Amino acid sequence: MPKKKIEIDPTQTTLPFPSTDEEHLDISTLETWLLNAANTIRGASDAPKFKDFILPLIFYKRLSDVFDDEFAKHVKEFGDEESTREIINLDLENALKTGENPIVRFYIPQEYSWKALRNHPADGRLGEFVTEAMREIARLNPLLQGVLDVKDFNESQSGQRTLDEERLEALIEVLSRHRLGLQNTEPDILGRAYEYLLRKFAEGQGQSAGEFYTPKEVGELMAHLLNPEPYTTIYDPACGSGGLLIKGRLQFEEMHPNEKSQAPQIYGQELTPTTYAMAKMNAFLHDFIGADIQIGDTFRNPRFVANNSSLQRFDYVVANPMWNQKEYDDAFYESDSWNRFSDGIAPSSSADWGWVQHILASLKDNGRATIVLDTGAVSRGSGSQNNDRERDIRKKFVEKDLIEGVILLPENLFYNTSAPGIVLLLNPNKPAERKDQILLINLSQHFEKGKPKNILTDDAIDAATEVYQAWESREKLSSVITLEDTQKTDYNLSPSQFVDVGDKVEHRPVNEILADLTEAHIAREKADKGLEDVLAQLGLNEKR
Predict the structure, then answer these.
(1) Nearest Cα residue to 207 out of 32, 415, 414
(2) How far is CA 542 from the centre of its chain?
(3) Closest by alpha carbon to 180, among 287, 77, 82?
(4) Please, are residues 389 and 376 in contact by the beta-carbon 8 Å criterion?
(5) What is the DSSP string of 437-486?
(6) 45: three-class secondary structure by DSSP
(7) For the purposes of burial, counting CB atoms within 10 Å of the CB of 342, is it exposed (0-12), middle (13-18) or buried (19 or more)?
(8) 124's torsion region: left (phi>0), alpha (psi -120 to 50) or beta?
(9) Strands (E), 215-313
């Protein structure tokens, strides 16, 4: 039986049910609500499979509710709804021709509002209508192209709808329970709820999750270490869903609450279209409209370039590229036209040091970078009698004094591996007191057990940040090593080589141990003899 449709006055600018404009959503309410909406699809275990349907609908709801709020504000300014709609439409036509910003952030046609989706007839064409609506909204708002129009809500596999009408209707109905307008939730709160949902999807997607999500605690650690300054730029060449870029921007806003106009500009590039769309949505939901996110293969087609032979350079770079990529051979590195790989060609078995060189080429002379890599990136090849490409590139970076630090992370943090990982810190322009030194931090034991993944603790983030700023060695946490120290380990920069986090065991001299054993043996013989004497007196030691 078709569900009963809610009658909606097409001139209304707010949902009549069940929320009001006065409702203000906190982070807990948002997280619970969005997770419930996701689970509506097919239950908690299957919801991550449908993230490419769920996330655009949440984003669509925010766009529609914000437009309704802005429309209502302009009605007060222009006098009536008809005049307001005409003025907004004319302004949009002009903006599309000139490239200027329209008077509304994003234009949502009345026939494609959230109310229209929710009240669509139960005729079996809801998926088709949602797809049509998203594509038209993307056409009218160029910033949303490749973001809102990437999913076909009517798609089928083997003649079966991927997301059937009933579940799509149920999802839209659950999302209709709350408004996401300007007065209902702050962009930061909504963005955090979105990140929470991404994490929940990552927990359910296992190996494939690493393509789009880096644990937020790791991102917070990297942001704390960089601590961006005003009027700077942050770049991520493998940005996934944009979490590392957003953490850097939020770190600035936390440290400079009254200087948001001076906040760093963020730039990112992502290979996968659906993940690129997630990154754009993530930035928009945090109200970072000016975020410049590009799509494409960063290695083969970097989108941020200064000219035909060099890359655009940034104040900060954050990255968690795919570890140990194997699709780049010698011919690729040798034919590079951007002068990125002058310190050596990475082996075909791992592009890790190819990524590090790309990041260095994207970094200003006084810039800094934090890069998440496999632990092997700082140790492979050391101690080998043969030539090793990774060790040789690492050696050049050490001798050029480009590496500022290495942080060993706990195991089982990441969604696509149980391996621990490291954070590599680059700084081409170290302060004088840090020249020819590298700070190694061992956080391997600083975690809380979680399901399905461990969690890096807030105390660990604070301790690593503090010791980095103080630049000092601390027992069971950090060690400042010299160039000579790295030579002794053949450029193995693993923190576990220099920072012991286990309980110390004191070993006694062997002669003392033997003397104590002899003394104990004599004491036992005396005790045995005494016992025999007592038993003899009692007549209890006679042989039977």
Answers:
(1) 415
(2) 80
(3) 287
(4) no
(5) EEEEEE-TT-EE--SSS-EE-HHHHHHHHHHHHHT--BTTTEEEEEHHHH
(6) coil
(7) exposed
(8) left
(9) 233-236, 265-270, 292-295
Strands 314-319 and 265-270: what pairing?
unpaired
346: nearest Cα among 310, 394, 384, 279: 394
DSSP string, 194-233: HHHHHHHHHHHHGGGGGGT---HHHHHHHHHHH-PPTT-E
**Rounded-to-integer distance, Cα 535 and Cα 544, Å:** 14
How many C-beta neighbours within 10 Å does residue 357 have?
24
Please provide the DSSP assignment of 71-91 as one string.
HHHHHHHHSSHHHHHHHHHHH
Cα torsion at 33, 38, 41, 45 (round to 10°)? -120
Helix axes 165-175, 27-42, angle to 10 degrees: 170
Instruction: Give the count of alpha carbons within 13 A of 543, CB side only.
Output: 0
Question: d(Cα 335, Cα 426) in Å, to the nearest integer?
Answer: 25
The three-class DSSP label of residue 285 is helix
**CB distance 423 to 372 below 8 Å:** yes
* Pairwise CA distance, residues 341 & 14, whole Å: 56
308-266-363-491 Cα dihedral, nearest 10 degrees:
-130
Each of the 544 residues of the chain gets a pLDDT tens digit; together they read 344 333 333 333 333 333 444 689 999 999 999 999 999 887 766 888 889 999 999 999 999 999 999 999 999 999 899 999 999 999 999 998 998 889 999 999 999 999 999 999 989 999 999 999 999 999 999 999 999 999 999 998 888 999 999 999 999 999 999 999 999 999 989 999 999 999 999 888 766 666 789 999 999 999 999 999 999 999 999 999 999 999 999 999 999 999 989 999 999 999 999 999 999 999 999 999 999 999 999 999 999 999 888 999 999 999 999 999 998 999 999 999 999 999 999 999 999 999 999 999 999 999 999 999 999 999 999 988 888 999 999 999 999 999 999 999 999 999 888 999 999 999 999 999 999 999 999 999 999 998 889 999 999 999 999 999 999 999 999 999 999 999 999 999 999 999 998 754 444 555 666 667 767 767 777 777 777 777 777 776 654 3
3-state class (DSSP) for residue 48: helix
Checking DSSP bridges between strand 447-448 and strand 455-456, what pairing results, if any?
antiparallel
Q: How many CB atoms lie within 10 A of CB 95?
A: 18
Pull the structure tokens for residue 171. 């999802």
Encoding tokens for residue 451?
């399901």
What token pair was written down for 505?
């065991």
**120 with 126: CB under 8 angstroms?**
yes
Contact 19, 178 (CB under 8 A): yes
